Amino acid sequence: MSRRLAEHAKRYPPVDITLPWGTSTGEPRTVPLYLTTPAGTALSRTAFNSGVWKRAIRATGVPDNRHNGMHVLRHTYASVLLDAGESVKALSAYLGHSDPGFTLRIYTHLLPASEDRTRRAIDHAFADDPQTPDGLETA
């Protein structure tokens, strides 16, 4: 758990909630809910967007438009994970996409450029390193 989440949980203890997992008829699963209403109930996306996100946007003077909407958080999450090297398949599952191909089509422009990584891999493979065996076992 990150330091910031731990601090939030200390100040606003999470509420355990049990819901069907994966689908509306999925196996019930209990998880801690970290964002709740003042009454301790689940905070809906709509309530968060209008009651928290948009108020914060307006307070900072950032334009309140679709480019700064709450959905941007989803794209920020995806781009941070891709930049850190997370796989498209895993990201697809995290975002709830049924097809990693869909995720790839949406986020392919955010994937780190691979030219440098490719050059480093080939340089490493052909490095003059006497410690590395140079026989069939390396193939």
From TrEMBL:
Identify the SUPFAM superfamilies for this entry: DNA breaking-rejoining enzymes
Ranges where the Tyr recombinase domain occurs? 1-123
Q: Name one GO molecular function term.
A: DNA binding
Tell me yes or no: is Plastid among this UniProt entry's keywords.
Answer: no
Claim: Manganese is one of the keywords in the record:
no
In terms of Pfam families, this protein maps to: Phage_integrase (PF00589)
Q: Which GO terms describe its biological process?
A: DNA integration; DNA recombination
Q: Which domain of life is it from?
A: Bacteria
Going by the UniProt record, its keywords in alphabetical order are: DNA recombination
What protein name does the entry list? Answer: Phage integrase family protein
